[in-house]
Write a structure and sequence with these properties.
Layout: E1 2-5, E2 17-23, E3 26-33, H1 41-45, H2 50-57, H3 65-80, H4 88-117, H5 121-141, E4 150-151, E5 154-155, H6 163-186, H7 189-195, H8 203-208, H9 214-217, H10 225-228, H11 254-281, E6 304-311, E7 316-323, E8 333-337, H12 339-345, H13 347-350, E9 354-355, H14 356-366, H15 370-373
Antiparallel strand pairs: 1-2, 2-3, 3-9, 4-5, 6-7, 7-8
């Protein structure tokens, strides 16, 4: 029997259609059909300047807008040759807001995954805590979800007075909440039974499909672009890269991918604390600090092909630029490498001969956003 799952299905994380070829309750093959959430990002980028495109990067992985903008802006800055001129305070603020957004994105992944499996309470808890982050980022940028805060050469505005103190209060509040969440969901026997030894993704298959982020690290490879490429101020920060170990089942199963995101939240909190220490001690705000001081009047890079990648919340987010006219502020061609697209492509490979209910567990463990898949 052929069953269509989605795009209306509440468990398929947005507008994705899965064609299931089934034999009773057993799924023999899964065929994903994408193309229901048109963002047209690449065409926008070819008709707007680098600065004007930043709000459109927010709409790809709309759950981690800061991370998208950071990657785009770093690409433009390196093409212009001004990446070494960015003040340290701006770099630390960028990392701070990106890690806050990474936590917010992972909370969505964890909360909705719980509700996919049938656990309602963790969903409410995750959204409650995410609301604190949303409030802080709205305070900084003026926007609740699509921020347009990180600009080429600087920031839209400096952090509001009192932001660092409030952020530290959030970190102190949130650490015990993660302990409670682990007791409720991570170590829950029903949750483990539904996710351990389900959707096992071997490391070689993950690499061959181009998987990145928690999906790849869940299969046991310690590969994080914040460490591998060492961009921005990440080389100055102390944090670990969590990987799947097969603690509850087999390395690379759904539980491992989920646990990597939980552990990454703890590491992001470590990074945030270090950023706050630097911002409050060595890089204090001064009356004459202007986050727009380094903004170029015209963004006209030399003619070149350039690829920039960064570690987004879902994995490797890359932008490939072709700039062929040195007098133009508009790129000739832009290609976005969204991590969700590659991560989603591995679903058919790990969904053979599983129960229909397990397909939901597998999809939830991938944590993709369709705005990044159908650009």
């Amino acid at each position: 029997m052929i069953l269509n799952m989605g795009p209306q299905h509440p468990s398929t994380h947005g507008v994705l259609r899965l064609e299931l070829i089934t034999d009773g309750e057993i799924v023999k093959e899964v065929i994903p059909h994408v193309g229901y959430l048109h963002r047209c990002f690449e065409k926008h980028a070819e008709s707007l300047t680098y600065q004007q495109t930043i709000p459109f990067t927010d709409r790809m992985d709309y759950l981690a807008s800061m991370n998208n903008a950071h990657a785009w802006v770093m690409g433009a800055e390196r093409m212009l040759g001004i990446d070494k001129d960015i003040p340290k305070r701006i770099e630390y603020i960028r990392v701070l807001v990106c890690e806050l957004n990474r936590i917010a994105s992972h909370l969505i992944a964890i909360g909705t995954y719980g509700i996919d499996i049938g656990a309602f309470t963790p969903f409410l808890w995750c959204f409650r805590d995410r609301e604190h982050i949303m409030g802080m980022l709205e305070w900084a940028s003026g926007s609740r979800m699509l921020y347009n805060y990180i600009w080429v050469g600087g920031l839209f505005y400096d952090l509001p007075v009192g932001f660092e103190e409030r952020c530290r209060e959030f970190v102190d509040y949130f650490k015990p909440k993660m302990v409670e969440l682990n007791q409720l969901l991570t170590d829950n026997q029903i949750f483990i039974s539904r996710t351990a030894n389900v959707g096992i993704l071997p490391l070689d298959v993950a690499i061959n499909y181009g998987c990145t982020g928690p999906v790849l690290r869940g299969s046991g490879l310690r590969y994080d672009l914040r460490r591998v490429d060492g961009y921005s101020v990440y080389p100055e920060l102390d944090f670990e890269v969590p990987i799947g170990t097969g603690k509850m089942g087999t390395t690379g199963d759904c539980w491992d991918r989920y646990k990597v995101r939980v552990d990454e939240i703890d590491q992001s909190l470590r990074i945030i604390e270090q950023c706050l220490d630097r911002l409050q001690k060595e890089l204090k705000r001064t009356p004459d600090f202007d986050p727009r001081a380094k903004l170029p009047r015209k963004l006209t890079p030399k003619a070149q092909d350039f690829y920039l990648r960064a570690e987004g919340a879902k994995g490797e987010l890359g932008f490939y630029f072709i700039h062929d006219n040195e007098r133009s502020e508009i790129p000739f061609r832009v290609k976005a490498r969204g991590p969700s697209y590659n991560n989603l492509s591995v679903v058919p490979a790990i969904s053979k001969n599983v129960m229909i209910a397990d397909v939901i567990a597998i999809i939830g463990s991938i944590d993709f956003v369709l705005g990044e898949v159908d650009r």
